[in-house]
Amino acid sequence: MAAETGTPTTLTLKSNDDELFSVAESAAILSVTIRNMVEDGCAGGVIPLDNVDGKTLASVITYMNGISAIPADEEKKKSYRDKFLSDKDFETLADMVLAANYLNMSCLMDAVSAKIAQVMEKKSVGWVRRKFGIENDYTPEEEAAVKEEHKWTFEGVETDDDN
Amino acid sequence: MGNNRNHIPVEIIDQILYNLPVKSLLRFKCVSKSWLSMITDKDFVKRHLKKSSADPRFTHHKIIVKSHDKSTNYYNLGSCSLGYLYEETYEKNPRTQILIDRPLAKWCFDFRILGACNGLVLMFAETGHLFLWNPTTTDAKHIPSVYFDGRCDSSVREFMYGFAYDEANDDYKVVCFYLHSKPFQTKMYSLKGNYWKKIDNFEKGSPGCRSGAGKLVNGKLHWLATDSRRAWGWWDIVSFNFSDEKFEIVPCPRQYMSNYGRNIPKLVTLGGYLGLICPERQKGTSVWVMIEYGDAESWTRVWTTKSSGYGELWVTKNGDIAVAYGSYIVVYNGRKKLRQFRIDMVGANFVPDVYVESLVSPSTH
To answer: Do B31 and B92 fall into the same domain?
Structure first.
């Protein structure tokens, strides 16, 4: 990806599995983490992003390019974000929320958190434990007591085979 | 990251939970002890409430409706979505869901709704009991009886109420006037302390018993009261301020200063503003809103209708107004009628109240 003449400054980002990505500085500085590095003059060579893998970083860069191409119109940005996240599964969304947190991108962070909530809304307690890797620390009696208190909230829960 | 996903930090989990509706959150209390403590954390409950209340699409606002079941002689409570009324792509009447575990079922056949605030509903049972109820979580608390001169609150007609959140003290309060005393004796209940205490007598005229429960605007409660210095038919707006526990007169619209006779104006909250529904001299009704709280000049007539029957109103950010007529709710945009809905389970002339789905607990606040 050679820089064309007249194009703005390009940064090179490196994922934790050693993939290299070129991205326009104007798009990359949506990440406060990257912006701080640029402002501190630490963005001369390759910027290593130790907490983000190549697959997730590629997706985040697609988002950076897409959203920064939209002029200041909150409605259009929102519909871009909705469309961008619409086909992502839970695993991808979980990777993205961690990346957005690490890169300090609040707009992506808010959108992905809301999307994860939407995916979880009708899921079972077991599904949530598996997906979030949470160990059940209730005794069976304690869990039954908490469940008994809100029995009706277990109605209309989706079955778990859809992952 | 790959498979190493079981380290989503607590602050991210918190932000995800913040976006979930109450029903899912109650279920996910079962996930683990740390999720239980996150979901019941007071600060989380407050932030979640604030987000739900501020939703411009009213996604989490519900209309509470009451209907009489002839076969059992009990009254049922149901709720239906307020946001649905404002959807342009509506298809049919909103579905009314029966609210389960009605807390009063054990004690009475009938009850009145005296106000709603932050997802809590104040109810008066025909047996004389007062209850605070969260219809979303089904959590309820029985409020101790209030006594004036040895008399207990056995009839809602002898007492007038207002229910509010006192933000400075993070407390829920009920204000009660005893209408058979002169000057009007007044007491206030604190949910935190679970007690009634005497406050200043109400000396700003006579509270209109038909004007209903107090309206909460700007952190203060408001009622209509007849002006005792003038003939019957003149109404003042009286506010109650929680910071100094005093009553004050709030200015009415200037043009409003006319004698209403038997046509009683109605005090409402409209999109967070204080509003007045006034019968017109000829025929019809006009709706006034106080844009700048406390400023008499800022009262603005937002709507006039030829109809003289009116019920509760709500307004969206874009100015669409929903009005309850009989068992119908009609949505207007300025002058034009946009659409109308029939609300299930409701007889004629219901007085619908609106609550927001919240995690606020009346029994543990």
So the answer is: no
